Amino acid sequence: MSSPQIPEKQWAQVIEKTGGPLEYKQIPVQKPGPDEVLVNVKYTGVCHTDLHALNGDWPLPTKLPLVGGHEGAGVVVARGQLVSEVNVGDHVGIKWINGTCLSCDFCMQSDEPLCAKAQLSGYTVDGSFQQYAIAKAAHVARLDKNVPLDGVSPVLCAGITVYKGIKESGARPGQTVAIVGAGGGLGSLAQQYCKAMGIRTIAIDAGDDKKKMCEELGSYAFVDFSKSKNVVKDVQAATEDGLGPHAVILLAVSEKPFQQAAEYVRPRGTVICIGLPAGASLKAPVFESVIRMITIKGSYVGNRRDTAEALDFYAKGLIKAPFKVVGLSELPKVFEMMEKGQIAGRYVLDTSK
Q1: Are residues 135 and 215 in the same domain?
Q2: What residues does the Enoyl reductase (ER) domain cover (predicted)?
Q3: Does the pTM exceed 0.70?
């Protein structure tokens, strides 16, 4: 296959300084290094992590200037001389983990997201809010050419992350999982993965629009925290035996839900922390946590095997990310809605607009 024509300049959303504003401008198209590929990004999802990158409110410094984004789906247009496993013309995804050392203890045990030298798309290296992006060939997600690039882009972070969290929870078919932040991009996918895995879900979020969406996605109960007088009791009451869910998947972007989860999860239940509200702390009552044998654990992004499995659910039609497509130039408006909590599902950016 002959190499496609690659322009020297491209449109991108650039963060010049922490806190913004974003600058939509033309920047040079980079050339891939020996072990890298250059991807013509067609669509890219917008994640709450991208807002943290803009605001710089995580205890991890960002690259500056920075092109954010880590849910990019597109076509390989060039590759480095050492790359043999990915070809020009392949459809691939750019994930949060852009590259790792592949040789440390974590990498060799399939825990590459824990690699101390991990490169993070849209945070420590430029990401997918541009028309052409660089990624390590070993870490791009392989996409079937029959899979729509706009629809699959949210799965590249949101889908893989919640799928990993459900696996970490140990929840089994027939058991119940409460999903906090169920109406957001991650939550909408978490409900679908649970349904596909035979796990019942209680959705926790606020607003009638999100309630309707969660019911359509298969959750048998919805707890509106903005209307509830006692979230703990309401969640427990939503389970058949009143003991609470077997596991809780925390996708919230505020601290309070993290403090409540250990109170309503059932004895021997597991609380999975995925959301990363800035400056938040975990807190649970020691006595009750001990005598009820509660497990509280963090779940980061999935490894390469988790990625392949999560994408397989999508390819088989078991997962459908609710999304709306807007142009790359409209990213500031998406962030504004995100800050106000007005987004149900996911926004996907068309890099050609």
Answers
A1: no
A2: 19-349
A3: yes
